[in-house]
Write a structure and sequence with these properties.
Blueprint: H1 11-20, E1 25-30, E2 40-42, E3 48-50, E4 53-61, E5 68-76, E6 79-82, E7 92-99, E8 102-112, E9 120-129, E10 136-140, E11 149-152, E12 158-162, E13 175-179, H2 187-192, E14 205-213, E15 219-228, E16 234-243, E17 254-255, E18 274-283, E19 288-295, E20 299-306, H3 310-313
């Protein structure tokens, strides 16, 4: 399918389009995590293989705290339990990919603000290794930037999705560049990456959560778009778009799910009830896919949807 970029679509317009098309949404399920005491597990990755076993990385956190750790879980008798002997990381919102045959794990690191007393700053950090057990840190992104993502392209180079905020990105906009290899990643390159125009109005924001290399070499991006309502409550929606690294062209954003398609559940705060944070997408190869997501900053759910990238791979 050809990539045709239209005008900016707000959350309201995207919601109207989603509801009008009666999108597939079935097999909604809340994932059950044990072995973490009374803490929540949310903003998970999709399951990925490590040492012959399917593993989920999840954000583990007390309901009344923002200080979290990333832990790894395996499924036993329908429940996800901490993987024995696996490391833990003091991070939020884990993500993973594979580059050059190695596992790359990333997340958001919180640390004391360099200039403001009693304030926190954050950045995206990356680890790599042959397996979870061998993960070592290799790159720290710019201060104040979440949702930094990388993906291996067909020619072995690396696509880089950025998400600056502030003077350049407002509340948060997506940028894209590429490097020949992981070792070429730099703060300067990320800060100088051009934004993808026409994705978000200034009052709304979004970011990339996971990038999929499609069969024709284009990149399928799983992300989120978000806004505040008049009461100050947050609304986060899972979305996708496709980008051609050869031309730089990209498709319009499209919603792939909404909160009420998942099961009812708990919320960390009342302003977070309508938050669906895209974690990962497993494409089944039959026209469907399973979306793994953090729900209301308190739970982890999954939902079967139509494969949002299949139309781009059909001749």
């Amino acid at each position: 399918m050809e990539l045709i970029k239209g005008s900016v679509k707000t959350c309201e317009i995207l919601l109207q389009e989603y509801m009008a098309h009666n999108q597939l949404a079935q097999n909604a399920e809340k994932l059950s995590f044990t072995g973490v005491g009374d803490k929540d597990v949310y903003n998970i990755t999709a399951p990925f293989e490590d040492a012959g076993e399917l593993v989920i990385a999840g954000r583990v956190e007390s309901r009344d705290s923002e200080f979290s750790e990333v832990r790894f879980f395996v499924e036993q008798n329908g429940e996800w339990v901490p993987r024995e002997g696996a490391p833990t990381f003091e991070l939020q919102d884990p993500f993973q990919t594979r580059i050059g045959g190695e596992l790359v794990l990333g997340g958001v690191q919180i640390y004391p603000h360099p200039t403001q007393e009693n304030a926190l700053m954050w950045r995206t950090v990356f680890y790599k290794g042959k397996s979870i057990a061998e993960l070592k840190p290799f790159f720290k992104g710019p201060n104040g930037m979440k949702d930094l993502r990388i993906v291996e392209l067909q020619d072995g180079s690396v696509g880089v999705f950025t998400r600056p905020q502030g003077e350049k990105g407002g509340r948060g906009k997506i940028g894209y560049s590429r490097v020949n290899r992981l070792e070429d990643l730099s703060i300067e390159l990320i800060n100088n990456t051009s934004l993808l125009d026409g994705q978000f109005i200034d009052e709304e924001w979004g970011g990339a959560n996971e990038a999929h290399l499609l069969s024709d070499g284009r990149i399928g991006v799983l992300g989120h778009i978000a806004n505040f309502d008049a009461q100050g409550d947050r609304h986060y929606y899972p979305m996708v778009f496709v980008l051609d690294p050869a031309t730089g062209k990209y498709s319009d954003i499209k919603l792939i799910a909404v909160r009420n398609k998942f099961l009812p559940g708990a919320a960390k705060r009342t302003d977070l009830v309508d938050v669906v944070f895209s974690g990962g997408l497993v494409r089944n190869g039959d026209g469907t896919a399973v979306l793994y997501a953090g729900i209301s900053d308190a739970e982890a759910h999954r939902l079967t949807i139509a494969d949002p990238f299949q139309e781009f791979e059909q001749a």
